[in-house]
Amino acid sequence: MVNFRNIHPRKRIALVAHDNRKAELMEWAYANREMLAKNELYGTGTTGKLLEETLNQTVIRLLSGPLGGDQQVGSMIAEERIDLLIFFWDPMSAQPHDPDVKALLRLCVVWNIPVASNRATADFLFTSPLMDEEYIASQIDYSTYLNRKV
Ligand SMILES: O=C(CO)COP(=O)(O)O
């Protein structure tokens, strides 16, 4: 059995970037400022601060990633409070909070969240007609797991 989740036209978007990719995210965000302005934005601490300066738009700021920000985004996804994630993570540097990064990306799969880890994917997502529409996301039914005998 499959469940469904409604994603509204005004989406709740989380934006996150590791330090080596923050400039790239800011450049992309500025180029997409009109689309971003139609949505509600969330960001981890430092990324959120830079985004507010770049976009002149309110960004709801969570903790900095290594201090728990990635986990906050993950818990918001699990509570159905984030619809889409743009996460420019750094494939070339070790992160002190690597388990948190992995946990966040895992929850995106668990909850069927669209994720962009690079600019090309972010461009494809943001030019999708679904950005301006309601979207019914299918949600795997975890009841077998929840009702398992332990
Ligand atoms: O570390 C991060 C994501 O894993 C991002 O955190 P900041 O936006 O606070 O730099």
TrEMBL record:
One of its GO terms (cellular component) is cytosol. GO terms for molecular function: methylglyoxal synthase activity. Substrate binds at residues 18, 22, 44-47, 64-65, 97. InterPro entries: Methylgl_synth (IPR004363), Methylglyoxal_synth_AS (IPR018148), MGS-like_dom (IPR011607), MGS-like_dom_sf (IPR036914). Keywords: Lyase. One of its GO terms (biological process) is methylglyoxal biosynthetic process. Its EC number is 4.2.3.3. Catalyzes the formation of methylglyoxal from dihydroxyacetone phosphate. NCBIfam families: MGSA, PRK05234.1. This is Methylglyoxal synthase. The gene is mgsA.
